[in-house]
Amino acid sequence: MQDSRIPAALLAAQGKTSFPGASAAYAAARQALLAEEIEFRRHMTRLGEQRRALPPGPVIQKDYRFKDEQAFEVGLADLFGDKDTLVTYFWMYGPQRERPCPMCTNWLGAVNGNAADIKQRVALKILGRSPVERQYAFAQERGWHDLNFVQTVGDDYAKDLGVLLADGSEYPALVVFKRDGEKVRLFWASEMSREMADPGQDPRDAPDIASLWSVLDLTPDGRGTDWYPSCNIERY
């Protein structure tokens, strides 16, 4: 099929630097970058279309058990509520950890800001190995009011995802499930492992859904190579 879209370079030619005084070199480089940004947007759109076009995923056969925010034991299907899609994030806050993973904390802080809107369309649950009360205590410390935390009962879920290590440490996992009648199917899961990271890069998914990095990527110094946010910050 012939691509009827206007070439990115022609669209970028319509761009204009907001402030006067830009050198010819800056203007040319910025226009070239704008064309790449347009292509990147188009590629992200294609990725979304490919993701939505995935064939039905495997049916979840195991009866994973959880404790919800009232500490009632429930199954995976119960986490959907009245929605047909369930977005889950397994965060690194196991019982052996004194504090949660700083990057999980950062990611959840951003998600909390959008959680009320996200939950209008899909179910959203944050899963952890620590008791649900402990997870909510940290959420209160951070001022998170719109996230629903769930405790995994036993370690089958984490082990089957491959995110629980022999020493009790964990990796995070972003997993989306789809209701199919009385069944629950996997729709999509992040599968970019640490081994898939390019040389010199911190392991991460693409597109990068952490707003911290999305903002820092717009800045002159970028995200850096050895900086991570702290969990211990003052709240105002």
What do you see in this structure?
By secondary structure, the protein is of the alpha/beta class. The protein has a domain at 65-189: Glutaredoxin. It has 6 helices and 7 strands, in the order ααβββαβαβαββα. Strands 2-1-5-4-3-6-7 form a 7-stranded mixed beta sheet. A hairpin with a 5-residue loop joins strand 1 and strand 2 (73-75). The longest helix has 29 residues, at 24-52. The termini are far apart.
Task: Name its key features.
236 residues; alpha/beta; Glutaredoxin; 6 helices; 7 strands
Number of strand segments: 7
Give the overall shape, derived from the CA principal axes. globular
Summed over residues and divided by their number, the pLDDT gives a mean of: 89
Approximately how much beta-strand content do the residues carry? 15-25%
First and last CA, distance: 55 Å
Low-confidence stretches: none
Taking all Cα atoms into account, the compactness measure Rg is 21 Å
Name the CATH superfamily classification of the domain at 65-189: Glutaredoxin
CATH topology of the domain at 65-189: Glutaredoxin
* Strands ordered across the widest β-sheet: 2-1-5-4-3-6-7
